[in-house]
Amino acid sequence: MSETVSYKCPHCTAPLTFKPGADNVVCDYCGDEFAIKTIVELFARQEEAAAKERQAKEQKWDTEAAGGEWSAEEATSLRAFACSACGAEIVCDENTMATECCYCGNPTMLPARFDGLLKPDLIIPFQKTKEEAVAALKEFYKGKYLLPSSFTRENRVEAIQPMYVPFWLFDAQVEADAVFRAEKVRRYKRGKDEVVETKYYSCHRVGRMRFRKIPADGSRKMDDAYMDSIEPFDYDGLVPFSSAYLAGFLADKYDVTAEECAARADTRMENTAFAELQRRVPGYDYVRRESGSVVKEQGDVVYAMVPVWILSTKYRGKVYTFMMNGQTGKVVGSLPYDKGKAILYPAAAALLLWPVFFFLIMFLGES
Question: Alpha-carbon distance 168 to 262, whole Å?
Fold first, then answer.
């Protein structure tokens, strides 16, 4: 997004030059002519849009209200374990024994002093059991044609950990403003020539939108791609946080602050807002955004914990990690593939299609 405005042709974007004493301005590149009043009004709107862009960049989220303080009783009942291999910090209640790091598989977890950081505001309790997580993983294998045949026979679930993952949830009331360059293209014959006629339009759209619970995970150890893939969570299932929900479960301590996650939330919000405005520019062959801004009128943040099952399985000496949404049951993860099958299946498909190709060649040759 640019913060300055220059006078350019609305059609071809070439620089415009005002000639003293003239009532109109002519584009030296495409030859289009515009009334000076029209150009001034157009670029006055662009100056206003540039000011809104600056305002949008200066607007901050209210991150100070996210999270709370642990009570002395809660802090006493919680324990923290630090992995000596990867440095991950895991929180659990005093009755939970953490003997293996769910991130790197290190078999020992060293007790560390509990530093509570912020207390979560909300939590989504686990809805899926350990048995359901294992069953979902086996179902995830099905239909994967390039999966080695021996994988499902030889692999064993090495570890399965229920983990509450820290999330920052962003709520915002915004005003979105964007200018789109739209085109209508008409093709027709004129004698022996094919004529392509293109008309250009400048479309201005403004809208007020409400965003609820834009998620950004607060753990560096959690793969963002995985966490994005197991979304969405049903945020109607959020309840006020209580340390009782941690009984028998692990919880990751956030190491990415709300301020650090704000840029990611802004990007997701802006992309959605601009896409919604562009959807309101129908009837054209091509539409692209030229400028725009999303200004937060209100930006609130809450700290929440969401449930994730982390499963790791070993196959021929290599560990594969999977994650399941502990509320909805959605599974994501990486799988090995059989190089032989990767070659065999395309070859088999080609052999099956060969009679069809041969028939077509013979048919076309005879005709």
Answer: 9
